[in-house]
Specification:
This protein has a single domain, classed as Response regulator (Rossmann fold), CATH 3.40.50. Helices cover about 40% and strands about 15% of the residues. Strands 2-1-3-4 form a four-stranded parallel sheet, with helices on both faces. Strand 1, helix 1 and strand 2 form a beta-alpha-beta unit. The radius of gyration is 14 Å and the shape is globular. The N and C termini lie close together (about 5 Å).
Length: about 140
């Protein structure tokens, strides 16, 4: 599991934060991110940058990318923020089946709610879930590397 793709909706909030978090936790892995409805070329909103800074995650240089078949095929595991994204991937990119898991898989199959345009508190809550669930993934993936 050296190649990990983290997915959210717009690829400007949750997945860039989770990508940076997981890349820091698993430096020997290649971690990237994309969105199912990406705001292609856009950077993270100020709230995401702020919560990233507070957690020593610099996501300023991130630019959103739209997920595609090649991205999924190039990765060992795809981690999504919501169950709906997992369903979308199964329908749109069938190669994702069997390699796509919920970020909150080890935490009761929890979704990480989209904080976009919901205020700073929503970003802080999302970051808490990213951190909590990320620890579970880092522990399990780390044992396989």
């Amino acid at each position: 599991m050296r190649n990990i793709l983290v997915v959210c909706t717009g690829n400007i909030c949750r997945s860039p934060l989770a990508e940076a978090w997981l890349a820091r936790a698993l430096p020997e892995a290649r971690v990237t991110s994309a969105g199912v409805g990406a705001l292609v070329g856009h950077g993270p909103p100020e709230e995401a940058i702020s919560v990233g800074d507070a957690n020593d995650l610099d996501i300023r240089a991130h630019r959103a990318r739209q997920i595609d078949h090649a991205m999924v095929a190039a990765n060992d595991v795809v981690l999504v923020m919501e169950k709906g994204q997992q369903r979308w991937l199964a329908e749109q990119i069938p190669v994702s089946v069997g390699r796509t898991y919920l970020w909150g898989h080890w935490n009761g199959e929890r979704d990480v709610p989209d904080p976009y345009r919901q205020g700073q508190a929503a970003f802080e809550q999302a970051m808490l879930l990213i951190d909590d669930c990320g620890r579970q993934w880092a522990d399990r993936i780390g044992r396989m590397l």
